[in-house]
Amino acid sequence: MALIRLPWQNGQPEPVPRHIPGTPIHQIVSLIPVTNGRRNDLDRALADVRRATAEGPSSLRDLPQVHMIRIEVIDTLPVGGRRPRQIALDVPIVLFGATFEGNTSRLARSLIDAAPDPCDAIFGCCLNYPGKDRVKLGAWFRAYEITPNLPFSARTASRQRIEQSFTRTDNLRRFMTSASSLEPAQLKAAFLQGFS
Amino acid sequence: MTQTFGRRTALTFTCALRPGGATFLKLFLLAAGRMRWVTEPLRRFALIHFARWTVITQFPGQPPGNPPRPLLLFESNFDDDLDDYIDTFAMLVPWRFRAVWFTASGYPGLIPVDGFNAWVGTLEATPGFYWSAYAEASAPMVNAVLSVDDAISALNARAATLTDTEFATAYRQMLIEVQPWL
Question: A153: nearest CA in chain B?
Fold first, then answer.
């Protein structure tokens, strides 16, 4: 398999990730070949992460400024014809997709800080994995990136704004009840104290 | 097989494209990205959080000719289950639905939807791991709290210019406006 020249090897600067227009949200989709002979290791690593996440608090359950992470494995490809048919890939591919804020170095840092061992276990099964260096890992994701022809996001707000909105909405529900008998001056003062 | 986290579902599948399908899709998706009205129903029906359509003619870092035929990679993150999702999609945006999927080899047609669901089932990627922030909140819930937050901020901004009585009136008016979202 031809090896591609990775950006840090050319001294290239941090590339700009795909930004979804009108939102603070960026995304990346990478198709990364699995290293020969590591397919079973990859399955075990993914099963371990799924089990850890399902059983309770997991380091991959809350990544700062990240809206969504998905990892899937493409083992077969569809071929044409009236009846769907699949052919097995010589080299399986890991699909890594993330929707996040900031740049890919920040995304990589979130992953490394939250889940260093799962990062090594999962991505270590893939070709040219650079290890837990946030700049190199971000560039590695970019090196295998594909560019969506149409990205769509219903989210137009940052994760911080969304979480703040949930909190303020809960606070308003409680305030409605506690403030129902306040005189106007008290109401105004209490509102400004609670929501400024 | 889809992946789920909280009430969020992730769907990923690839389909081979018919001759000419890649060119048509690239143009269609380019136009859809530039003409907001094409994707407006997706925002209005508030079932999808994120989605991506990608035409793949060459896998990065692999020898030329890989994949052997152009593919469409479709990824979506939505609330609740796959059957409801596809039913709703097909009902609300039928011509957009057909414009994309008729380019795919083996596309069984929109009606009956069961046939399309079964076709998708044969094409899905192997699930690995999926995580979504605020996963217990549906898309309409997220939109609702953002609207409430906007109303609170607007009242805050006006407060300094209002007398106490005017503020009380504005506060009650705000509650009436945000009531559907509380």
Answer: B50
Chain segment A58-103, per-residue pLDDT in tens? 566 678 889 999 999 999 888 876 666 788 888 999 999 999 998 8
Tell me whether residues A33 and B61 touch, CB distance under 8 A. Answer: yes
What's the token pair of residue B78?
A: 């939505």
- Amino acid letter for position B59: F
Q: What is the tally of helices (H) and strands (E) in chain A?
A: 7, 6
pLDDT at A2: 41
Asked if the C-beta of B60 comes within 8 angstroms of chain A's C-beta atoms, the answer is yes
Q: How many CB atoms lie within 10 A of CB A118?
A: 22
Residue A168, phi-psi category: left (phi > 0), alpha (psi -120 to 50), beta (remainder): alpha
Q: Where do we find the tokens 């089990």?
A: A51
Sheet-wide strand order for B8-16: A150-153, B48-56, B71-79, B8-16, B3-5
Burial (0-12, 13-18, 19+ Cβ within 10 Å), B160: exposed
ipTM: 0.87
Judging by beta carbons within 10 Å of its beta carbon (0-12, 13-18, 19+), is residue A40 exposed, middle or buried? exposed
Closest CA to A137 of A124, A155, A156, A151: A124
Burial (CB < 10 A; 0-12, 13-18, 19+), residue A139, is buried
Query: Cβ contacts of residue A176 below 8 Å, gap of 6+?
Result: B175, B182
* Nearest beta carbon to residue B69 from set A61, A80, A154: A80
Task: Tell if the CB–CB gap between B105 and A79 is shorter than 8 Å.
Answer: yes
Q: Between A184-195 and B164-178, two packed helices, what is the crossing angle to 10 degrees?
A: 60
Task: Determine if residue A14 is left, alpha or beta; phi over 0 gives left, psi from -120 to 50 gives alpha, anything else beta.
Answer: beta
Mean pLDDT by 10 residues, chain B (182 residues): 83 90 93 83 78 92 87 90 79 81 85 80 83 87 94 95 96 95 87
